[in-house]
Amino acid sequence: MSREQYPLERLPRVERNHGPVPFVPREGAARAPLLFILAGLSVSIMAVSRGIPAPVSSVLAPLTVWGLLLILSEYRPPRFFSYGAFLSLLAFACALSCGYRLVSAATIKAGVLQDEGTVVLERSWGSRRIVLVDASSGTYLMRLSPNRYILEGDALFFTGRTKTIAPRPGSSFREDLYWEARGVSIEVVPESITRKAGGWSLARWRTALRKRILLTLPYRTRGYLLAAVLGVRDPDLTEAHRRWGTSHLLAVSGFHVGLVAFAVWRFLSFPALRLVCSRRLAAVLSSLFLWGYVLLAGGAPGALRAALMIQALLLGTVLGRKGTPLNSVSLAALLLLLWRPAWFFDIGWRLSVMAALLLAGLGERRLSLWMLPLSSLFIWFAAFPQVTATFGEVPVAGIALNLVALPLFSLLYPIALFLSLPLLLSVPSGEIFAGTAEGLFSLWEWVADSAASFFPWTLSWSPLLATLGGGLFLLTVTGGLFPLRGRTIAGAGILLLAAVFFL
Questions:
Q1: Of all helices (H) and strands (E), which one includes residue 65?
Q2: CA 174, CA 196: separation in Å to the nearest integer?
Q3: How many whole angstroms separate alpha carbon 161 and alpha carbon 141?
Q4: Parallel, antiparallel, or unpaired for β 393-395 and 186-196?
């Protein structure tokens, strides 16, 4: 029997020069131990959100880890229980830390606040505009009229009344959790605002670039590039993509971060540059470009998750250590939750992590290239429960469009940016190149509108489809770690039943 044919926990020990060394497990919990900790932490955070005290909910984390290990692990080596105890202890520590931080937010009493700070975010929010002000005493949210001329990077001196951010009545969207995930828990109803001259900052540079794109590029091109480069969405473009079921193309996520990282790495890998740029230097430069782009785009949860994954990959390349896809995704998700536990309730974080875990599970099975286009279909069904629970319905046209949307935009975004640069840099005849980009986006919108008219139906939340989507996700992830046999399928089914009962 070859080494590869040995079960995970029955791998023999081989005598080396420095004593007995076990073979590295090829499958099972040892391939992605952080995934089990992430699962335990997620259960604990959900329990805290249901009003269960943090000490009690933290106990659910190690219980979840042990449950997953016992259900899914067919073979148990002598050190199995020691390994499980170690993972359980880490899960308990993470859950206890996040739980106490979630419930320790002080209740804000009504009062008058006077402070000054810098606007770090400005965006439309329904019929009003939202600004986030980073002041010395905290980060505050203000709702302003649409005609109020306040931009990112502006320095403000303000007075106003403070209040808590309350969820919208009759809406499943938790606005309080959304802003808490971004470091905001206090809303200020402004009574007076005075703009002051501010110095250089990333926010002012974002504003300058935003103005340049708005005043220079054609309508469609500027809308798509604002979304991809700065994370600023045009309301009309957002509504169109919501109708097509392709809203993720406008949200700065792992897709956009991956494109930037891949482009920089491939550029630095050209033979002419290898003479002056070593592999280690290429990794450092790629990391700088990677985090520079994430900060420029606003630091969305999905972008941060992808950046952490790619950073781990680059670090492994430099150190000569290769991790597993599922463990890398779990590491990024854990770090973000330990930083801001409220991110668990952010729909962007959830969908980003879910899609990354599903793709990682498919990658663990080493599927052929022809399966890659079908990954969009897998993600659509797996995301169905979350999307419909949050937004109410999803268009059927998204099933067909997402088969081609990601491959198409992986080419369209770089091409459009390249064609727009001459006009942005005031190069003569730059309008011709920008017009070509505008034509490409117009062609995409024609295809999307045709698909939406051909498939005009929408799907709302359905227990059957939600169960199928959840089952597909669990089976893909567990099948990426364990042999796809009866025990793994049964284990995924048990987890699905537990999720249905718990949720």
A1: helix 54-72
A2: 33
A3: 11
A4: unpaired
Which residue, among 72, 6, 3, 2, has the nearest Cα to 485 in the 3D structure?
Answer: 72
Note whether residue 195 is domain-resident: yes
Q: How far apart are CA 178 and CA 164, in angstroms?
A: 13
pTM as predicted: 0.82
CB distance 456 to 374 below 8 Å: no
Taking the C-alpha atoms of residue 291 and residue 161, their distance in angstroms, rounded to an integer, is 36
Domain check: are 293 and 380 in the same one? yes
Separation CA 258–CA 309 (nearest Å): 10
Phi, psi of 351 (to 5 degrees): -65, -40
C-alpha distances out from residue 414 to 157, 221, 254, 262, 492, Å: 40, 12, 15, 11, 39
Domain of 186: which CATH number? 2.40.50.140
Query: Final residue of a domain: which of 174, 199, 224?
Result: 199
- Residues 297/229, Cβ–Cβ less than 8 Å: yes
Within-domain flag for 16: yes
Q: What are phi and psi of 160, to 5 degrees?
A: 175, 175
Alpha carbons within 13 A on the beta-carbon side of 240 = 20
Please state, in angstroms and rounded to a whole number, the distance separating the CA atoms of residues 208 and 201: 11
Q: Which helix (H) or strand (E) holds 298?
A: none
- Specify whether 189 is located in the same domain as 247: no
- Tell the residue number behind the tokens 């080419």, with chain if given: 411
Residue 469 lies in a domain: no
C-alpha R_g of the chain: 24
Are 290 and 362 contained in the same domain?
yes
Count of helices and strands (H, E) across the chain: 18, 9
Question: Residue 276 sits in which domain range?
Answer: 242-461
pLDDT in tens, the chain (503 residues): 444 443 444 444 444 444 443 433 445 677 888 999 999 999 999 888 888 888 899 999 999 999 888 888 877 767 788 888 999 999 999 999 998 888 775 455 557 888 888 888 888 887 788 888 888 777 888 998 877 778 888 888 888 888 888 776 666 667 777 787 777 878 888 888 888 766 677 778 888 888 899 889 999 999 999 998 988 888 889 889 888 888 888 888 777 888 888 888 888 777 777 777 777 788 888 888 889 888 888 887 778 888 888 888 787 766 666 667 888 889 989 998 998 888 888 888 888 888 888 888 887 766 554 565 677 777 888 888 888 877 778 888 888 888 888 888 888 999 999 999 999 998 888 899 999 999 999 999 999 999 989 888 888 877 888 888 888 888 888 888 887 777 777 877 777 777 766 65
Distance between CA atoms of residues 378 and 254, nearest Å: 16
As a whole number of angstroms, the distance between CA 61 and CA 84 comes to: 12
Contact indicator for 459, 393 with CB cutoff of 8 Å: yes
